[in-house]
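Async update (no meeting this week)

Hi team, since we skipped the sync, here's where things stand on the single-chain job. The sequence we agreed to prioritize is pasted below, unchanged from the tracker. I ran it this morning and attached the output directly underneath so nobody has to dig for it. Comments welcome in thread, and please keep replies under the output.
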Amino acid sequence: MESPTALLSAPGPFGALRVHRSLTLELAKRDVLGRYRGASFGLLWSLISPFLMLLVYSFAFGFVMKAKWPPGDQGDVHYSIILFMGLIVHGFFAECLNRAPVLVTGNVNFVKKVIFPIEILPWPMVISALFHTLMNLLVFFALHIVLDHTASWTSIFLPVVMLPLVLLTLGVSWFLAALGVYLRDIGQITGVLATALLFLSPAMYPIEILPPQYRWMMMMNPLTFIMDQAREVTLWGHLPNWTGLGIYAACALLVMYLGYGAFRVTRRGFADVI
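Output:
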């Protein structure tokens, strides 16, 4: 473990990004391009994939299961568009959740290099996930305009809504990256957890349709509030819940610094375990 003096003098999670900004962006670029290397359509798959994903979910839940979103004061919005926004929020978090446990074990060559700042590894992963989220949003807004013939000006607040989730994701990623070194089975658990977070969220149905005694399970889901707020600003034309976002952001910052601290404390033993 690192000495208390070293921990106190080390840059925080944002400082790590600032100090190694060029390296972080280069790793993020390599991550994005590496995913589509050798594919005939290259980066176009970042636009094609979310569209195909939406077709599958819309067919399964909208056509086969006849799922409908209860009407309200939000107006007539196509169910597929409502579903898509929930899938976008979940997709960002799930991608990082599934990849975080192998961030260190999958980059052994970086761990062996004393001078490499391995604490920055969650940053390129999150930036890469944000790139794919942006591609999903381009498809979302295009389909929203085509299917619903409208677009809300309050959509400009979507980055503000997503920011607390990004902070939370970074904190969770540092925790899981450190834990994944010492407990290799954690990767199997995160896959199941990601699926549970999808079906115990308002991605496909609103929380109001659940019996009151079961709603607490969905309210405990960290994605529930962000999904609801994302729909509020992009689909219903409402302003964000600033108080709720402020509380969420404060909790997310706490998780972020705790996750970063846990990673810094345990990183010295990584080379011995790997």
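Quick observations from my side:
The chain has one domain: 4-273.
The first helix runs from residue 4 to 9.
Reply here if anything looks off.
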